[in-house]
Amino acid sequence: MNLVDLILTVCLAANPGQCREEHLHFESHGSLMQCMLRAPPEIAKWLPEHPALKVKRWKCAFPSRDRYI
Protein backbone atom coordinates (compact mmCIF):
# COMPACT_ATOMS: atom_id res chain seq x y z
CA MET A 1 0.00 0.00 0.00
CA ASN A 2 1.32 3.45 -0.92
CA LEU A 3 0.87 6.14 1.68
CA VAL A 4 0.83 9.90 1.56
CA ASP A 5 1.87 12.18 4.41
CA LEU A 6 -0.37 15.12 5.28
CA ILE A 7 1.91 17.45 7.24
CA LEU A 8 0.12 19.92 9.48
CA THR A 9 1.81 22.87 11.14
CA VAL A 10 -0.20 23.30 14.32
CA CYS A 11 0.06 25.94 17.03
CA LEU A 12 -1.37 26.18 20.51
CA ALA A 13 -4.52 28.28 20.50
CA ALA A 14 -3.42 29.88 23.78
CA ASN A 15 0.12 30.52 22.53
CA PRO A 16 0.22 30.93 18.72
CA GLY A 17 4.00 31.20 18.75
CA GLN A 18 4.38 27.63 19.98
CA CYS A 19 4.03 25.42 16.92
CA ARG A 20 4.98 21.93 15.80
CA GLU A 21 4.37 19.52 12.94
CA GLU A 22 1.87 16.70 13.04
CA HIS A 23 1.81 13.96 10.40
CA LEU A 24 -1.37 12.26 9.24
CA HIS A 25 -0.97 9.28 6.93
CA PHE A 26 -3.50 7.80 4.60
CA GLU A 27 -3.64 5.76 1.44
CA SER A 28 -2.34 7.50 -1.65
CA HIS A 29 -4.65 7.63 -4.62
CA GLY A 30 -1.85 8.25 -7.05
CA SER A 31 -0.80 11.84 -6.67
CA LEU A 32 -0.15 14.67 -4.26
CA MET A 33 -3.02 16.54 -5.91
CA GLN A 34 -5.36 13.84 -4.62
CA CYS A 35 -3.92 14.42 -1.15
CA MET A 36 -4.56 18.14 -1.48
CA LEU A 37 -8.18 17.44 -2.39
CA ARG A 38 -8.64 14.98 0.48
CA ALA A 39 -6.82 17.11 3.08
CA PRO A 40 -9.62 19.49 4.22
CA PRO A 41 -11.98 16.69 5.33
CA GLU A 42 -9.10 14.85 7.03
CA ILE A 43 -8.12 18.03 8.88
CA ALA A 44 -11.77 18.61 9.84
CA LYS A 45 -11.89 15.11 11.38
CA TRP A 46 -8.60 15.66 13.24
CA LEU A 47 -9.37 19.09 14.73
CA PRO A 48 -12.16 18.14 17.21
CA GLU A 49 -9.79 15.60 18.80
CA HIS A 50 -7.21 18.39 19.39
CA PRO A 51 -9.20 21.43 20.59
CA ALA A 52 -6.16 23.21 22.04
CA LEU A 53 -4.49 23.35 18.62
CA LYS A 54 -5.05 25.44 15.51
CA VAL A 55 -3.83 24.43 12.05
CA LYS A 56 -1.62 27.19 10.69
CA ARG A 57 -0.75 25.52 7.36
CA TRP A 58 -0.56 22.13 5.73
CA LYS A 59 1.10 20.34 2.83
CA CYS A 60 1.24 16.91 1.28
CA ALA A 61 4.33 14.80 0.64
CA PHE A 62 5.21 11.22 0.02
CA PRO A 63 6.90 9.84 3.15
CA SER A 64 10.59 9.14 2.81
CA ARG A 65 11.47 5.47 2.74
CA ASP A 66 13.50 5.73 5.95
CA ARG A 67 10.56 7.19 7.91
CA TYR A 68 8.69 4.56 9.90
CA ILE A 69 4.92 4.84 9.58
Q: Which terms would index this structure?
A:
3-stranded antiparallel beta sheet; 3 strands; 1 helix; alpha+beta; 69 residues
Description:
This protein has 69 residues and is α+β, with helices and mostly antiparallel strands. It has one domain. The chain contains one helix and three strands, in the order ββαβ. The chain has a three-stranded antiparallel β-sheet with strand order 2-1-3, covered by helices on one side. A hairpin with a 6-residue loop joins strand 1 and strand 2. It is elongated. The model has no long low-confidence stretch (mean pLDDT 88).
Please tally the β strands and state the result. 3
Number of helices: 1
Domain count: the total is 1
What is the string of helix and strand elements?
EEHE
Cα separation of the termini: 12 Å
Mean pLDDT figure:
88
The order of strands across the largest sheet is 2-1-3
Structural class: alpha+beta
Q: Please outline the major beta sheet.
A: 3 strands, antiparallel
Estimate the global geometry from the Cα principal axes: elongated
Gyration radius, to the nearest Å? 13 Å
The percentage of residues in β strands lies in 35-45%
Helix content: 10-25%
Q: What are the low-pLDDT stretches, counting only 5+ consecutive residues below 50?
A: none
